[in-house]
């Protein structure tokens, strides 16, 4: 029988373009979260700066997060621009644990401005943590029913996403999360950017949350940067 899984959603303060500073903040967040899995927002390592240079999973700037995960036994799911096959750039989820980092997922559904630089990912992805199957998503993916359907078809226990939303999109984000949870009878965890960032976001929604399979929110952050909330998945 699987042990319960403690998952946290975080909305750390982000310094535009500064991977080193943001990695240090991510590491401190992992240390404070007291969770097996810590989910971060879309492009959390660079900010929502669509011209930020791509990073690689082996970047030594990520070492503080690796070390924090080694100390806590956590898996961090951070957001970053990465370089894929044939030189294509992607918005990605980078999975980091005590042994290093790997690119776990490429965002499939891109916004208009994003598509000028980035290529869509080829397929849904699942990350297994202690027997819990986590389906990965990034921002616009969560609003595309096809994405949730195709991801849950892989057999998942939770749908996990990092997002960047304006304050007036907070209600839409909540509605999408409840719909996915109730339609597919799975947990949903969304880490939503808080504070100012690029792309014209002078402020963002925050309100990261975790929803049970009946659509009930069981943990929710406010709008301020620096918040972490957690829930135990049974």
Q: Which structural class fits the helix and strand makeup?
A: alpha/beta
- The CATH H-level superfamily is Carbon-nitrogen hydrolase
CATH class: Alpha Beta
The secondary-structure element order is: EHEHEEEEEHEHEEEE
Quantity of strands, as a count: 12
What's the quaternary structure here?
A: single chain
Q: Order of strands across the widest beta sheet?
A: 5-4-3-2-1-12
CATH topology: Nitrilase/N-carbamoyl-D-aminoacid amidohydrolase
| CATH architecture group name | 4-Layer Sandwich
Largest pleated sheet = 6 strands, mixed
Number of helical segments with 4 or more residues: 4
Q: How much of the residues is beta strand, in percent? A: 25-35%
Record the SSE blueprint.
Elements: E1 5-11, H1 19-33, E2 37-39, H2 63-72, E3 75-83, E4 89-97, E5 100-106, E6 126-129, E7 132-138, H3 145-152, E8 158-163, H4 170-184, E9 187-192, E10 209-211, E11 217-220, E12 227-233
Parallel strand pairs: 1-2, 2-3, 7-8, 8-9
Antiparallel strand pairs: 1-12, 3-4, 4-5, 6-7, 9-10, 10-11
Helix pairs in contact: 1-2
Describe the structure.
There is one protein chain. The protein is an alpha/beta fold. The protein has a single domain, classed as Nitrilase/N-carbamoyl-D-aminoacid amidohydrolase (4-Layer Sandwich). It is about 20% helix and about 30% strand. It has four helices and twelve strands, in the order E-H-E-H-E-E-E-E-E-H-E-H-E-E-E-E. A six-stranded mixed β-sheet has the order 5-4-3-2-1-12. A six-stranded mixed β-sheet has the order 6-7-8-9-10-11, with helices on one face. A hairpin with a 5-residue loop joins strand 3 (about 75-85) and strand 4. Helix 1 (about 20-35) packs parallel to helix 2 (about 65-70). The longest helix has 15 residues, at about 20-35. It is globular, with a radius of gyration of 16 Å. It starts with a strand and ends with a strand.
